[in-house]
Amino acid sequence: MHDPTHHATGRMPVLFVGHGNPMNAIEDNAWSRGFRALAAELPRPKAILSISAHWYVDGTYTTANDRPETLHDFGGFPEELYRVRYPAPGDVALARHVVGLVGERRSSPSLEWGLDHGTWSVLVHLRPEADLPVVQLSVDGRLAPDEHLAIGRALAPLRDEGVLVMGSGNVVHNLRHAFSAWSRGDTTTPDWARAFDAEVADAVSRHDRTALAGLLESDLGQAAHPTPDHYLPLLYAVGASDPGEPVRFPIVGFDMASLSMRSVVLG
After folding, report:
1. What is the CATH number of domain 14-266?
2. pLDDT, tens digit, for every residue of 126-141?
């Protein structure tokens, strides 16, 4: 099923996307245009495995639905956003294969979830045709950062099978600050947000997994992530990459003052 434009090395790259505001799904803005430009640069995968910050639970699960539901897991947005459907098929075999890679003792298929906005608000731009199977993998909030990296490492063989591994979160995600700044009309990015974003970019560029696993514990990390859910998907993407692979940041910048929209392509 590989497209002739598949990755030059024969392996799929790994992707982390800063998904940001759900409204990016329906707005024409710098971020939605960035997602569409990124789509043009990526090889066509056979399927997509998305690790979204918004399936943050006690356990590691895969969506095993033939037709995963489009979940509108937010409130207070315009009706137009709730009408969005992303009708990509699921892939039960891939869901079970991922469980096998991660280990059946610590993961299992689930019918309790679908595609949340961390996945579909990006994929409506990356794959607007919704023509590829999509499976989500949950983020187990009980695990330490190095355990998330280890799961990412376990997923690496998917890259040789034509599967795009995509983490979806935000490198800086302090919603209290972001909404406060937005309500005041303040677009000034605070120093702590810029500093943490730069630290993460430096560590990713150096494939420094130890640094990435420890960054949340710093004062900057606590300011950037009052909860870790939007940071952890990055660790899956980095875990699935190889040290020494090229790293680039096709989308950078801040929305709502402090929300880092940095995206990463590894490989």
Report:
1. 3.40.830.10
2. 999 999 999 999 999 9
